Amino acid sequence: MPKHFIKQSSVISKRDRPIGIFDSGIGGLTVVRQFLSSLPEERIVYFGDTARVPYGSKSKATVIRFGLEDIHFLLQFNPKLIVVACNTISALALPVLQGKTDLPIIGVLEPAVIRALKITRNYRIGVIGTAATIRSKAYPRLIHRHRPEISVLVQACPLFVPLVEENWLKDKVAERIAHFYLKKLKKKGIDTLILGCTHYPLLKRVIRKEMGEKVSLVDSAEEVLSKSKRFLEKRKVLRRPTTSPRHQFFFSDEVPNFRKISQQFLGRSFIAEIVHL
Ligand code: DGL
User: Is 97's C-beta closer than 6 angstroms to any atom of ligand 1?
Assistant: First the structure.
């Protein structure tokens, strides 16, 4: 067994253990939103590393280190499943994280790719993501592993994450930035665009406006939910609807207006608990 391998033991039934979901900031709430609406009986423990966001501008070694620390934090809640609600960590660190624990860990890349492959008709798929995700080439590699004939056009959009963290979602500034990043991609004739960052679904309106109605947008948050659900069903560990679950939201730094943000994104207001890793 590798040196830092973390073995899980359980005193409460596996069905009642929570699902741990984490991201570098609040972008992973797009994944939480899917869980709350499609698996409402499941208990969620969320961690957002707001003290160190963005991860998308960091090196691979740093993203791996942060990812390991994030998982260590979640392990104290004895989750039955961990969802990496961050494309950057999934692209750069998933195999390392999976090798460190016997817990199932699901990333966001594969589900988004499978969905995009089902949708595309002209075999031209666009991918937008953080600088680190795009630099890693993880998306083109994965797409070509399934279908080598597909053309993959990529574009890093580094200013999208700060826009979301600042809650500037519909502003003219957001539209201008989206135009700047997406105009070239639009000319390349893609029919499917993977939103390769969990922050980006929050900018769907401006992305849709720029790309037009004919391009299908693939939200990795929606796809990771289906994969997680299938996984929980197969292992027979879906929580039974007895009492309503008590969700918890942890952040490594203040999230001003989290009550309002959670109301807006999740349809319910939650309290942010601050922790220091
Ligand atoms: N939401 C994240 C992602 O999916 C990370 C953004 C960042 O921290 O740069 O890539």
Answer: no
Q: Which two tokens stand for residue 252?
A: 């490594």
- Residue 128 CA, ligand 1 centroid: distance in Å: 11
CA 207 to the chain's CA centroid: 18
Atom of ligand 1 nearest to the CA of 198: 4
pLDDT digits (tens, 9 = 90+) for 74-96: 999 999 999 999 999 999 999 99
Instruction: Check pocket membership of 23 for ligand 1, CB cut-off 6 A.
Output: yes
* DSSP line for 182-218: HHHHHHTT-SEEEEESTTGGGGHHHHHHHH-TTSEEE
Q: Does one domain contain both 240 and 154?
A: no
Is 4 inside a domain boundary?
A: no
Question: Choosing from 86, 207, 224, 225, which is the catalytic residue?
Answer: 86
The pTM of the whole model exceeds 0.85: yes
Q: Give me the chain's average pLDDT, please.
A: 93
Same domain, 140 and 204: yes
